Amino acid sequence: MRDTNFLAANNAKQIWHPMAHPAEMRENPPRVVMKGEGAYVTDLEGRTVLDAVGGLWNVNLGYSCDPVKKAIAEQLDALPYYSGFRGTSTGPSIELAWELTEWFAPEGMARAFFTSGGSDSVETALRLARQYWKIRGQADRTKFLALKKGYHGTHFGGASVNGNANFRRNYEPLLPGVFHIPAPYTYRNPFDETDPARLAKLCAKALEDEIAFQGADTIAAFIMEPVLGAGGVIVPHESFMPLVREICDRHEILLIADEVVTGFGRTGAWSGSRAVGVKPDMMTIAKAITSGYFPLGATMIGEHVAEVFEADKTSFGSIGHGYTYSGHPVGCAAGIAALAETRKLKIDENAAARGVELASVLEDLKARHDVVGDVRYKGLMAAIELVSDRATKKAADKAVMKTVADAAYEAGVMLRVSGSNIILSPPLILTAEQVQAIGAGLDAGLAAA
Ligand SMILES: Cc1ncc(COP(=O)(O)O)c(C=O)c1O
Fold first, then answer.
1. If you write DSSP's letter for every residue of 158-197 in order, what string do you get?
2. What is the pTM of this model?
3. DSSP 313
4. How far, in Å, from the CA of 360 to the mean position of ligand 1?
5. Which residue has its alpha carbon closest to ligand 1 atom 8?
6. Around Cβ 137, how many Cβ atoms within 10 Å?
7. Taking each helix axis from N to C terminus, what angle separates 347-368 and 432-448, rounded to the nearest 10 degrees?
8. What backbone phi and psi angles, to 5 degrees, belong to 145?
9. Which residues, in sequence order, are bridge partners of residue 382?
């Protein structure tokens, strides 16, 4: 690699960053991360900070997971790539599909379709949902319903079901036939309802109304994150997803659980659906499937959905969809090793225990800093929503958010800012001391604001 001067001089010159304005990046180049160890990362200047972002919700095992690194190296030696299209499988893809169906057996997931990441997994689920209805002779079922504030990646299908205007506006017109209902977001909602259980019922009722308005026989699927991540860690009341399941069942609408963030322990359970006792019809996964060590995702397909495809006698059953890197052998080898480590370390239990500690840290910060409007958390995913005025809930501006993140960094903690939310998703190997260190970094950041 070129030297550090070269990297510093060219940072944000030739590279465009996702989710950023290119001019802003050129003017104020981002930090360059050079190394990772455990739950820490080191930047170009040699400064080491605790990574409260966990890469991007994905480095659950931290940066020093030798078994995953070894599995990648060994697979690179044995077979760096072969196609997973019709005609060939690779060993690791067969094994990982088996592991995943075992892993997600409680959710009733029976098949895996491999992808290169979360957006691909969502796209796959949406396309398979339409195809499912065509096979069943209900070709009118093409529409999708989703939650406002939901995030489902950036492909055209995913962006269409996305419920955040900032990921939609610049790319419209999006897919027709997609409709959104309010999210069970207690801090801000159109019903002015602050009780989570009552709000869950109101949002479920909105779903029911929308289905009646559209006509159930025009709707292919409803997609939701069990805990909404990028939209600001919105944690629905535990009754919400079961209510949604019941409504979808009654109207024969497929339920797609987007578990790209919530899969593999992030919320303190192996999946967000499992935490609330829901069996979706399909699940989208990615991110922590390899702990971020290799780009990989999968769409998991429920038994009864799979049966429809596998028993198909029409011309609609063949899957005209896939990616060059579907079932990439190196990614699948990384996935097998990451899942084994994830199980061995019981990181779901650690996420749950550290999550309780993090929650009390966040509540304490809210009590002491007026700039904090709301704190939300589940396991080791959390958000701190900043406001310029608690009474009006006016969102904090960009400059305030930057001040917080910069001051926290100075205090040794990497944070992520998304709109007026500070998002926390540290590695799930986090220790109790590291939870307190994140708290201290946040305290310094909030004090600076
Ligand atoms: C819930 C959810 N779905 C889909 C995606 C898209 O994943 P990717 O960025 O790997 O394409 C993300 C990314 O953060 C996500 O949080």
1. HHHH---GGGTGGG-S--SSEEEE----TTS-TT----HH
2. 0.98
3. -
4. 28
5. 118
6. 10
7. 30
8. -115, 150
9. 377, 424
Ligand 1 mutation target, pool 53, 59, 114, 151, most atoms within 8 A of CB? 151
Q: Which atom of ligand 1 is nearest to the CA of 155?
A: 11
- Cα–Cα distance measured from residue 104 to residue 199, given in angstroms and rounded to the nearest whole number: 29
418 alpha carbon to ligand 1 midpoint, in Å? Answer: 14
Residues 6 and 1: their CA atoms lie apart, in Å, by 10
For residues 200 and 315, what is the distance between their CA atoms, to the nearest angstrom? 41
- SS3 annotation, 210-276: HHHHHCHHHEEEEEECCCECCCCCECCCCCHHHHHHHHHHHCCCEEEEECCCCHHHCCCCCCHHHHC
CA dihedral 248, 254, 255, 257 (to 10 degrees): 180
Compute the half-sphere exposure of residue 403: CA atoms within 13 Å on the CB side of its CA.
Answer: 12
Query: Could you report the per-residue pLDDT of 301-316, keeping only the tens digit for each?
Result: 999 999 999 999 998 9
pLDDT tens per residue across span 374-394: 999 999 999 999 999 999 999
Domains of the chain: 31-61+346-448 (3.90.1150.10), 69-344 (3.40.640.10)
